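Regression test case RT-17, inverse folding.

Input:
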């Protein structure tokens, strides 16, 4: 009998009994080890890296739950990354509102009737 996935040739039943048990995995071996980011590293991340790390930790949490492992460390790291994402989104929104209002307050800017009546 031959098992091609593991490339093991079994010649008798005794060898079949002593085979190591395979764990079910999702294609690739999932790595749970990580080094936590410090605040400076999180702030210096590009938006793309930030989103990738958020997705990675979301996946680590799901996989740890499936394998009945402790998720607290992954959840803490996920919260720090998610907080940074929220702060960046708020800063972008505030910046766009500021730019929009500063354009309207420039000299020579034509005000609409509603804006004129509101300013009176």
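Golden output:
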């Amino acid at each position: 009998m031959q098992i091609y996935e593991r490339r093991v040739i079994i010649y008798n039943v005794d060898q079949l009994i002593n085979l190591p048990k395979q764990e079910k995995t999702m294609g690739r071996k999932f790595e749970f080890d990580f080094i936590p980011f410090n605040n400076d590293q999180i702030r210096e991340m590009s938006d793309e890296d930030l989103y990738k790390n958020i997705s990675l930790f979301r996946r680590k949490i799901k996989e740890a739950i499936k394998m009945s492992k402790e998720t607290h460390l992954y959840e803490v790291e996920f919260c720090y990354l998610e907080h940074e994402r929220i702060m960046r989104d708020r800063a972008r929104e505030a910046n766009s509102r500021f730019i929009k209002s500063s354009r309207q307050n420039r000299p020579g800017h034509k005000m609409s009737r509603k804006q004129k009546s509101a300013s009176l």
